[in-house]
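DNA-binding transcriptional activator DecR structure dump, as promised
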Amino acid sequence: METDPVNARILTELQRDATIPLDELGTRVGLSRNACWRRVKQMEDAGIIRGRVALLDPNKIGLGLTVFIQIRTNSHTPDWLERFVKATRELPEILGAYRMTGDLDYLVHARVRDVAAYDALYQRLIRRVDMSDCSASFVMEEIKETTALPV
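structure tokens r here:
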């Protein structure tokens, strides 16, 4: 599905506030309520809009430490990858896991309460998957983090 300028404006508005009433959304993008609803529905059906969520302040719910975990493995088998995927999807502290190019095999993004909570996450992760090297970097200052994609 093509993202024309009107759809791009709809997506931009929804990324700012997914709770916006259709009447207001239509007004902001220059469409009637029904035309706007049809476009939103089409983008949902096409998978462009994957869901609508509430964004939480991690500090206010006790998850003040952002961690990036760098993982290297000597095993590049389908079985290892399946265990790794399962582990990362089952550990709620892990927000993202990425297979990388270059020297690093995987990068994991996690949110935890503190260093002790990171250590507990680390212990649970290494019990599930073998790694040749695992190191972590703790975020000292969050300069920019957004969920909004440029459309």
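The radius of gyration is 20 Å.
lmk if u need the other ones
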